[in-house]
Amino acid sequence: MNVVNPNNISHEIQVIPRFYPTDELVFTLYNEATQIETNVTIIYLVENGVLTFTFDFNFTDGQKFQFKILEGTEIVYRGKLIATTQETQNYLTDKNEYYYE
Prior knowledge:
The protein is mainly β.
């Protein structure tokens, strides 16, 4: 799950892609509540095996999205995104126990 802050217009996300793109990418956001799909222009960089992309979009707090990144018809990455102003938490699970960092 990727998290963006709805107070910002510009966003940056880092993912590990299925394969490393070499051409133009299409970034598609699908709003789970309104069921509207939107294509957004992104700028991307692949460095040390990580695909980092930046984009501009106005989110509303609490919105949830599915997104995919395509190079032509091939899916580079597919994931979920939530827009929230809450502080995110990192945790580990081990034998039915949670450890918050």
